[in-house]
Amino acid sequence: MHEQRKAMATKIFKHLQTSVVPLPIENIDTDQIIPARFLKATTREGFGNNLFRDWRFDENDNPKEDFVLNHPTYSGKILVAGKNFGCGSSREHAAWAISDYGFDVVVSSFFADIFKGNALNNGLLPIQVSDEFLKNLFEAVFSDAHAEVEVDLENQFIKIVSTGEQESFEINPYKKACLINGYDDIDYILSKKALVEEFEKQTP
Amino acid sequence: MGQTLFDKIWDAHVVSSNEGFPDILYIDTHFIHEVTSPQAFDGLRDRGLPVFRPKQTVATADHNVPTWDQHLPIKEELSRYQVDMLTKNCAEFGIELYGLGHPYQGIVHVIGPELGITRPGCTYVCGDSHTSTHGAFGAIAFGIGTSQVEQVMATQCLLQQRPKRMKIEVNGQLQKGVGAKDIILYIISKISAAGGTGYFVEYAGDTIRSLSMEGRMTICNMSIEMGARGGLIAPDQTTIDYVKGREFAPKGEEWDKAVAYWQTLYSDADAQFDSELYFDAADIEPMITYGTNPGMGIGITQHVPETASFEAKEQGSYAKALNYMGLHDDESLIGKPIDYVFIGSCTNSRIEDLREVAAFVKGKHKADNVTVWVVPGSKQVQIQAIEEGLDKIFEAAGFPLREPGCSACLGMNEDKIPAGKYCVSTSNRNFEGRQGPNSRTLLASPLTAAAAAITGKVTDIRSFLQQEELVS
Questions:
Q1: Which positions in chain B touch A189 (Cβ < 8 Å)?
Q2: Where would I find the H helices in A75-192?
Q3: pLDDT for B164-216, tens place per residue?
Q4: Which residues does [4Fe-4S] cluster bind (chain B) (predicted)?
Q5: Which residues pair with B203 in a beta bridge?
Q6: What is the SS3 assignment for B380?
Q7: Which of A73, B143, B358, B377 keeps 20 to 30 A from B3, CA to CA?
């Protein structure tokens, strides 16, 4: 069976420069990112249509004008949000929805653990920045909606292009290699399958 | 130097540890359900892989299932499709399924413990963040995403970085009317919804020790609500007594060997934690939440905090939460009329929870303005409740006992709280829209929820208990 299987590449991420979408709200939980009633799909596609559903549309499915995704001024492949982004449920659908909508990076001053892992497993890069950098980033985009941000994964920095302010960010070296090369966790563990079987033999 | 309980269990499950890589952690049992598994099964099919250890995989249908007329086909098409898909996938990959109609069906975090699948010293994962519940037995248990569900299906292992360790001690005597749910809501209100992020928590102290297994599960269940991946409690005689004799618990000689091992599972006296917190049980009141994350909780006699008491950058989010909840600065919640009461979820739907509620509501009737849903955590809990006559007590009080499932905790089935309505809920999350679009959730203990059902208002359970003592 092992020999027949296909290797699964994840999405590759190296470098990005784009404008950003600001969402300066703290504790954005995964129920806001994708409400539970939209978790009934059995494939990974299409969740972007319901990203931030109840903030984005009213009860008659009309777009709410005051929500940033409906605002014609803001666009880009980077979502910038307040601290403790992605708290709550383990639903990977949250990462799928953000990615499916078209974002490649989420920036916040703090991420919930499970969300961070889910994002990395889907080629969506979560970048944790300082409170100060986040504040300056929001200021930059609110003074110029087209302000661009550069993300360099290889060199692990994020930069506000207009001001030149830049900050380095942390990422697990293994996960970094996965993103840059499109490696997949399952391929890695399967390459150690003999160790797993050995472990099982030794453990009652 | 001594080791923490967490490290002892983790080290016993490390298959491979390489510098610069997360550990490969062996998973003893993988729980799956209908919502977070279909894409993982598809992934296996795409790769041409089997489930590596199907006998260490346990499946049930819980998130989508109706809690009334469960014997009929599920009406909602997408829910039915998802549940049918689980049945099909389990058959194809050789996994035992406790589906609808099975005597073991129920909320995944209720059935694992009650069947004796959950045991001390083991590792458990599930595509559900409340997997932390199983930590109550002195196990490492945590929620994972669907890519990781696929990973565990394919390898029975998980690539995982060792988290930091936190100890939370609670000591002292609890007030009457205050229970496990109040303890955990109190802790989260003190350290915030992000205070445990990056940590695995060990709960300790004589107050925790004095709790039943059900109470300990309630505490560990909500570890994720402070951001911690999981929480655990060292096993003791209470744990051993609970596991003994259950369906899949070890028997005979195996049992004796298991117990001897479990008795080695505790944090050594000189073990180092990355963070330690201490709380006094006497400070804890019956708790209730007023906001839109579980950290926004107060003692029931306290008032909603003032917006001005927060840092400037937090005030916008705070005002948004109060506006959503229809509450204002400095408001007292006692006496506030409510519309729904939900007693259920993986936090509070075990037999002990139902007994506690039944003992309180016996001879009382719900207020006219309130709809009450009592949803048992499993088929076994439901049957036991009926055998003990609890269903008759509930019915006389005006709230029939429903059938098992996740229900109004997240409203994936028909059990949704309507827009703008207030629900006092024994579940675990008060996020915007969690119980239905624009619903307003007030998290509380089963006793506080029951008191609200009777009065139709947010009520201090202690005032009831005092009156009843005076009468008796």
A1: 24, 151, 154-155, 157, 159
A2: 93-101, 113-120, 131-143, 173-181, 185-190
A3: 999 999 999 999 999 999 999 999 999 999 999 999 999 999 999 999 999 99
A4: 346, 406, 409
A5: B168
A6: helix
A7: B143
Report chain B residues whose CB lies below 8 A from the CB of A122: 147
Mind listing the pLDDT tens digit for each residue in B222-278?
Answer: 999 999 999 999 999 999 999 999 999 999 999 999 999 999 999 999 999 999 999
Question: Which residue of B161, B410, B419 is in closest CB contact with A172?
Answer: B161
Residues 34-73 on A with a CB inside 8 Å of B are 35-37, 39-44, 54, 59
Q: Could you read off the pLDDT of A167-191 as tens digits, one per residue?
A: 999 999 999 999 999 888 999 999 9
Q: Tell whether B122 is in a known binding site.
A: no
CB pair distance less than 8 Å for B229 and A37: no
A193 CB near a chain B CB, below 8 Å? yes
Q: Which CATH number fits domain B5-276: 3.30.70.240, 3.40.50.12780, 3.30.499.10, 3.40.50.300?
A: 3.30.499.10
Domain spans in chain B, listed from the N-terminal domain onward: 5-276, 289-471
pTM of the model: 0.97
Looking at domain B289-471, does it have CATH number 3.30.499.10? Answer: yes
Between helices B461-471 and B446-455, what is the axis angle to 10°?
80
Locus of tokens 């951001």: B227
- Which residues, in sequence order, are bridge partners of residue B98? B60
**Domain pair B5-276 / B289-471, same fold:** yes
Nearest CA in chain B to A138: B313
- Contacts (Cβ under 8 Å, ≥6 apart) of A164: none
Report CA B73 to chain centroid distance, whole Å.
28
Q: Is B406 annotated as a binding residue?
A: yes
Calculate the average pLDDT of chain B: 97
ipTM of the complex: 0.95
Share of chain A above pLDDT 90, in %: 91
The CA-CA-CA angle for residues B122, B25, B233, to 5°, reads: 35
Give yes or no for a contact between B374 and B402, defined as CB atoms under 8 angstroms apart: yes
